[in-house]
Amino acid sequence: MQAMQFEQSVVSILKRDKRFDPHAYFFLKDALDFTLKRIAETNGGQARHVSGPELLAGCRDFALEQFGPMASTLMTDWSIRKCQDVGDMVFHLIEEQVFGKQDSDKKEDFSEVFDFEASLVTPFLPKSKLAVPKEIQRTRRTVS
Q1: What's this model's pTM, rounded to 2 decimal places?
Q2: What domain range is 62 assigned to?
Q3: Spacing of C-alpha 127 from chain mean position
Q4: pLDDT in tens, 102-135
Q5: CA–CA gap between residue 97 and residue 27 (Å, rounded)
Q6: Cα(131)–Cα(137) distance, rounded to whole angstroms?
Q7: Which carries the bigger pLDDT value, residue 129 or residue 24?
Q8: Beta strand segments in 89-144, E
């Protein structure tokens, strides 16, 4: 798709729904390209349809690769806080006929597949924070 057409589609979406920053849609387009490339590499060079969970994993991995420890901050700034937010954006782009859809695809495919925000923070937590169960971490904070 031409860059100008994509921009026009994003403008059209933002007229109807202003929840997500325009940068979020450009990120999603790049994350889909990243995911398609990764799938082709493991599928004998052949592209295929990407499922909701695959795209979510691709979004997470692409954000971590591109933005490192700032990934969570950027996604929050762009209003992408959970898996369902990605799904909402995907279906906005489907409505604009920018992304394709199979009959079996539905918004529920993006319903909290994993904790999106935590998946962007956890890789950068100190190992000591990861080893201690959350219940103990909460107890330590309240006792200190």
Answers
A1: 0.85
A2: 3-143
A3: 25
A4: 999 999 999 989 999 999 999 999 887 666 565 6
A5: 17
A6: 10
A7: 24
A8: none
Nearest to 93 by CA among 7, 2, 35: 7
Q: Which of 117, 119, 109, 106 is nearest to 53 (CA)?
A: 109
The conformation of residue 113, written as its DSSP 8-state character, comes to S
Query: How many angstroms separate the CA atoms of 114 and 106, rounded?
Result: 17
64 contacts: CB under 8 Å, gap ≥ 6: 71, 120, 123
d(CA 24, CA 20): 6
Encode pLDDT of 74-90 as tens digits. Answer: 999 999 999 999 999 99
As given in the structure block, the two tokens for residue 84 are 């369902």
Task: Give first-to-last CA distance, the chain, whole Å.
Answer: 56
Contact 80, 20 (CB under 8 A): yes
How many domains does the chain contain in total? Answer: 1
Give me 75's structure tokens: 């996604």
For the record, the structure tokens of 9 come out as 């589609």
